[in-house]
Design brief:
The protein is mainly alpha-helical. Among the domains are: about 80 residues, no CATH class; about 80 residues. Helix content is about 75%, strand content about 0%. The protein contains 12 helices and 3 strands. A 3-stranded antiparallel sheet has the order 2-1-3. The protein starts with a helix and ends in a 13-residue tail after the last helix. This is Biogenesis of lysosome-related organelles complex 1 subunit 5. Keywords: Endoplasmic reticulum, Membrane, Transmembrane, Transmembrane helix. Belongs to the BLOC1S5 family. It is a multi-pass membrane protein. InterPro entries: ATPase_Vma12, Bloc1s5.
Length: about 350
């Protein structure tokens, strides 16, 4: 019985006794939150205290300086932003107002009317100026010579004969040609001519006709195949004294050419000095003397560089003396070549002797 009661008590203890479980949880809690953490919160509190002390000692003054530097500009920017916001609000209130909108519409309408009036005035002035310039150009290039006549083509003649109805105020050429169709034959009509006044009247008639007619006819179309008869210039007779002087000068020129062609045949008229042998020998001697002078100058320059420098300075190496002689000879040769070319160039031109006049002025 006692064993049964004991076993029953063990069953009760196993089923309803929670002390072992709670004791394990308490042990785990103490191990996690007391043994492991130990003084971690205290250390963190000390670190926070250190940071706070450091900020108080070092960063607080710097923060105040930065605030003193940047807070005025920040305040000014904020004030500007506030003023802009106020202006935006005021404009919004103005736009919302119907009176302001109506006034703006009236102003725009007046400005538009003023612009249209200005543009119309400018266009009128431009048209007027263009018309004036056109009239000036027409007057400048107008043909005022009454002797200029036009022989009309068949197309222009037929138009004047059959299409021109009203000839009141027309020039004589139009009325004359228009009347010919009734009294004379067509052979005589073909010999009729028109003047500039007739074409001007016909051009005005065509302008008026194009306003009402269905088929538009222009003057240049009718003017095709027409001939313009220009006046012949008057021939001015030449002065007889001038003609006689021209004939005299032509005869004298022919005489001079003949004398120049026949001078080699007649020995009495050989007067040029370059034709003689003495002159040629004299020229050859001058050229030979110039060439010889060039050669002797070059030799003298070489001797000065090869021997003279040694006599002045003292003993020198043979190669150095030879180089000095060649340099001096080249310098003198260049100078002599220049002067020799000038000299020979003077002899290269033909000398035209002064001859006696073959004619009298």
């Amino acid at each position: 019985m006692a064993s049964v009661i004991k076993d029953t008590g063990e069953i009760w203890g196993r089923l309803f006794d929670h002390r072992p479980f709670i004791q394990g949880e308490v042990t785990f809690f103490l191990r996690e939150f007391q043994e492991k953490r130990s003084d971690r919160e205290v250390e963190r509190l000390f670190k926070i205290l250190e940071y706070t002390t450091e900020l108080k000692e070092s960063q607080l003054d710097r923060t105040e300086q930065l605030g003193d530097c940047h807070l005025p500009s920040l305040k000014a920017n904020v004030d500007v932003a506030l003023s802009m916001c106020n202006r935006v609000l005021q404009r919004e209130e103005n736009f919302d107002s119907d009176n302001v909108l109506s006034e703006n519409r009236l102003l725009r309408k007046k400005e538009w009317e003023k612009f249209i009036n200005d543009m119309s005035n400018k266009c009128e002035r431009v048209d007027q100026t263009f018309q004036e310039k056109e009239n000036e150009i027409q007057e400048f290039y107008s043909i005022v010579d009454p002797t200029v006549t036009i022989k009309p083509s068949k197309k222009l003649t037929d138009f004047i004969l059959y299409d021109v109805k009203d000839t009141d105020g027309a020039p004589d050429g139009i009325t004359y040609l228009h009347s010919k169709s009734k009294k004379f034959k067509k052979e005589k009509i073909a010999n009729a001519t028109l003047k500039i006044e007739d074409l001007r009247w016909l051009n005005k008639y065509l302008k008026e006709n194009r306003k009402t007619a269905t088929e538009k006819i222009y003057l240049h179309e009718l003017f095709d195949d027409s001939d313009v008869i220009l006046p012949t210039p008057k021939e001015t007779p030449r002065n007889p004294e001038l003609e006689a002087r021209i004939k005299k000068l032509a005869a004298q020129q022919n005489n001079r050419e003949y004398q120049a062609m026949t001078k080699s045949i007649d020995s009495a008229r050989k007067f040029l000095p370059e034709d003689s042998v003495a002159f040629q020998m004299k020229q050859i001697n001058k050229q030979l003397i110039a060439v010889a002078q060039f050669i002797f100058s070059v030799i003298a320059g070489f001797a000065f560089g090869f021997i003279g420098v040694e006599l002045i300075v003292g003993d020198l190496d043979f190669g150095f003396r030879l180089l000095l002689g060649i340099i001096c000879a080249l310098i003198i040769a260049l100078a002599e070549i220049y002067f020799l070319a000038l000299k020979l160039n003077e002899y290269g031109f033909d000398v035209t002797p002064k001859s006696t006049k073959l004619h009298r002025d």
